[in-house]
Amino acid sequence: MHSSDTADVVMRAEAISMVYPGTIALNEVDYRVYRGKVNVIIGENGAGKSTLMKILAGVQQPTSGRIFLNEEQVTFSSTRDAASRGVGMVHQELNLFGNLSVAENIFLGRERQRGLMPIDTAEQHRITAELMARLNQDIAPSELLSNLKVGQQQLVEIAKALADQADVLILDEPTSALSKTEIELLFEVIRDLTAQGVSIIYISHRLEELMAIGDHITILRDGNLQSEALIEAIDVPWIVREMLGSDPVTDFLKPGREFGEPVLEVRNLSLVSTTGLTLVDEVSLEVRAGEIVGVYGLMGAGRTELMECLLGLQRYQGEITLDGQSVHEGTSTSERIRRGMCLVPEDRKKNGIFPVSSVSNNMTISSLWRRLKHRFTIDEPAEDAAVNSAINTLSIKVSSPDIEIRALSGGNQQKVVIGRTLLTDPKMLLLDEPTRGIDIGAKGDVFDMMVSLSERGIGVLFSTSDLKEIMAVSDRILVMSGGRLTANVSRHDATESALVSASAQGL
Amino acid sequence: MNTPHNSTSSPASIMSKDNLLLLVLKMRTFIALFLILAFFTVMVPGFLEPSSLVIMVKHIAINAFLALGITFVIITAGIDLSIGAILGFCGMVAGWLITKGIVLPMLGIAIFPSIWLVVPMVLVIGGLIGALNGLLITRYNVAPFICTLGTMYIVRGAAMLLSGGETFTGLSGNPQLGNTGFELIGSARLLGLPYAIWMMFILAAVIAYIAKRTQFGRHVFAIGDNEHSAELSGVKVARVKVWVYTISGLCAALAGIVVSSQLVASHPATGIAFEMNAIAAVVLGGTSLAGGRGSIMGTLIGAFVIGILADGLVMMGVSEFWQMVVKGLVIIVAVIIDQKQSRLQHKAAIVKQK
After folding, report:
1. Which uninterrupted H or E stretch holds A220?
2. Contact, A291 vs A259, CB < 8 A?
């Protein structure tokens, strides 16, 4: 490190480590934030960038390592503590209240109020108006938050951080929910702020954006600092290379795989949300028996919505053919499951498990109709046999099938959810981000299982935002961006940088 | 499903303190029942006389019908406040059909259906009111609390309107009209026990069977546990919910028939605040108001605890005002214990998993 650098460095982390039971999230990472610049940080899911940001913002404390702010060593015991020292963070999910005004949102929890006096609304509105002027926004302090567009709400979050006199502002994937014009607006605000001397840490997966707005880039890989560079000196392929490393991708597929007839055919599938946004735009695709098709895309690319349409959870336009037979738009989810289509949903906690039900009940809920006596009573011996065989084939670690599923680890919970789909005896298996939030070992198990199912002639369509995963288990790769399919390539023809640029098309 | 009396501790493991505590907590409704029985046996002379026990269980049966019906609703994380009103209304409909008949003005005649028709008609009406609740809740997204609060007032008002607030008396029917026998539902006995008690046990068995052994029962638990997941797993959430409220209405109608038959009269204000007793029995039985967790046996025992407590205090000569205080305390303590059990159970499951 050159001594001349330190003058420009507003915040510095030295040898930060974060150790969780069983995993090292950060390993002796040195990180520098340059004053008045946009400091971009990037890495794959699980590379440790959110952990690092949480440490810098005081959300959690590191296992070891030191943090310096303006060359003075600091420890943040809480986010409030960090905020009082000038470090603010805007999280990806907005923490705002729709039924409160803009000013009330900004001052929530630190209202201008003394003793038994009422809140000093005039003062709060004055400060809010100043902040809005600083952000070049024409938003009235008394405006109800729910009346604002998402982009404007994001700016209110930023104003909230600025109200604390933030010197360092961390933006976690700020553009994932924004439209193109809103992104432009946000970039203008960011440029204004850096001109005012605010240092920005910017996290995003959208490489084009990083190139447009960033000054410095830091790349994390598997909990280690990989490299640091000036944006002007580098290009997109370099970033992809640094991010993924050059180690060969693990290959879960045997050579010479053969596919049968198409199991799933989709023609011109479109989904328009109630607010008029096109979430899925004229998507056509085909999955053949025994084929694994991976859908790559960033958050908000429309992958989840596509899967929900396929399972009949949304009202879409377009044609779906399953195993040669047309599926009507009005066909219910349970009927689609009976006809052989099944989904492992994205958010396991929210949409996947039944937390206080037993492992066994979790597993059989979708396929009870297959195990009935006299079309009414559940055939319990058959049920037990099915559950036990699924526990064995998926090697689920569970002391007894009667245990509540929430006592299991994330990976084992996910296997139970996968087991649920298998017990319906599917022809077409949909998996939405099946490896999110599970450990490396369980990931491998999930992939092995997908491959062995495909070898039994089941069509598999899975989605992920992880490039290595998509290269490891797909026969064919589709890329989605802004609701449209922007690439459809066989795995052998796919290159990582081509996939990355396809995933940013039309943004 | 957590039945309050199923011990899941593995025989191999030595009973640790936590495990023992958990077992005690799981069986708490049973233990409470025994404690209350023991207490009153000592305090009230002749408490265990068969005749007084039978009267007590007869009282319990009415609350048990309602509580058994509403258990499914509560397991789906819903609530049904209209059951007391449905009970009153259905009693009034039965009274109307027996004393006034179905009047056909254009023909100038009134048809008096036999009891074998009156009872099914009343049950269907109760079920339809429940189904209406279910439809409003699923189709128009009305919160169950508000929806059933609304139907509670409507149905109670309708009951009053049926007679202008008067009581229908003389429900034993008229031999010339061929509609006698209604009072037998409340007074007749089989093997020495009143019909109402047999009906309570049969209903409990049927509902417990549905809960444990049918697809419908599993779907009810799944919806209460996680409605999103249920939808994605192919559970027809709306349809199941409509049925759940229908069952609740049906059970309330059954209770209404039994009450008016026992009194051989129907009064439109019968059943006011009965829903509260039913909810208390369900909660006491270990069913969580947050949904997904509950047991039918628990509800039945809960109804017994509440009923014995009420009648026992009366026999002891405790004032009605103190009875209310005691009942309230018992309910709150039960919920606190339920929270404790659920935490301990989670802990025990994690330990067992490791």
Report:
1. strand A216-221
2. yes
Closest chain B CA to residue A407: B350
Cα A449–chain centre separation? 23
pTM metric for this prediction = 0.82
Supply the pLDDT for residue A222.
82
The residue with greater pLDDT, A254 or B212, is B212
What number of other Cβ atoms are within 10 A of residue B22's Cβ?
21
Q: Kindly report, residue by residue over A195-217, the tens digit of the pLDDT.
A: 988 999 998 877 878 888 999 99
> What ipTM did this prediction achieve?
0.82
C-alpha span between A106 and A127 (Å, rounded):
10
Instruction: State how far the Cα of A264 lies from the Cα of A476, in Å rounded to an integer.
Output: 14
| Chain B residues with CB-CB distance to A356 below 8 A | 225, 292-293
Instruction: Give me A400's structure tokens.
Output: 């007894």
Judge whether A382 is closer than 8 Å to chain B, CB to CB.
Answer: no
Where are the alpha helices (H) located in chain B, listed in sequence order? 17-26, 28-43, 50-75, 83-99, 115-139, 144-163, 184-187, 195-213, 215-225, 227-232, 237-263, 274-284, 296-316, 320-353
Amino acid at B84: G
pLDDT at B5 over 70: no
Q: Which residue is closest to B224 within chain A, CA to CA?
A: A354
pLDDT class for B88, splitting at 50, 70, 90? very high
Using a CB-CB cut-off of 8 Å, the residues of chain B touching A351 are 226, 228-229, 232
The set of residues, in sequence order, having a beta carbon less than 8 Å from that of B273 and lying 6+ positions away, is B84
Name which of B8, B221, B231 is nearest A357 (Cβ-Cβ).
Answer: B221
Q: Are the CB atoms for B223 and B76 separated by under 8 Å?
A: yes
B229–A351 C-beta distance less than 8 A: yes
Q: What is the pLDDT of residue A246?
A: 64
**Contact by Cβ (8 Å): A220, A243:** no
- Residues of chain A with C-beta less than 8 angstroms from the C-beta of B353: 397-399, 403, 407-408
Structure tokens belonging to residue A199: 């240092």
Lookup result for tokens 């008045």: A36
Touching check for A419 and chain B: CB below 8 Å?
no
Tell me the pairing of strands A459-464 and A476-481: unpaired
pLDDT in tens, A283-293: 999 999 999 99
Q: Which chain A residues touch B234 with a CB distance below 8 Å?
A: 333-334, 336-338, 366, 424
A89 and A40 Cβ atoms separated by less than 8 Å: no
* CB of A337 less than 8 A from some CB of B: yes
Q: pLDDT-based confidence at A468, cuts 50/70/90?
A: confident
Which of B10, B225, B345 is facing A355, going by the closest CB pair?
B225
Chain B residues closer than 8 Å to A401 by CB? none
pLDDT at B7 over 60: no
CB pairs under 8 A between A and B: 94
Of A423, A419, A422, A402, nearest to A411 (Cα)? Answer: A419
Of A345, A368, A399, the CB nearest to B215: A368
| pLDDT at residue B13, rounded to an integer | 47
What is the structure's pLDDT at B127? 96
Poorest-pLDDT segment among A249-253, A464-468, B79-83: A249-253
Can you read off the two tokens belonging to residue B273?
């605040």
Please answer whether residues A225 and A30 qualify as being in contact, where contact means their C-beta atoms are separated by less than 8 angstroms. Answer: yes
CB contact burial B92-124 (16+ within 10 A = b; e otherwise): bbbbbbbbeeeeeeeeeeeebbebeebbebbbe
Q: How confident is the model at residue B202 (pLDDT cuts 50, 70, 90)?
A: very high
Residue of B nearest to A420 (CA): B233
Q: Which of B232, B287, B341, B354 to substitute to test the interface with A, most A CBs within 10 Å? A: B232
The verdict on a CB contact (< 8 Å) between A336 and B226 is no
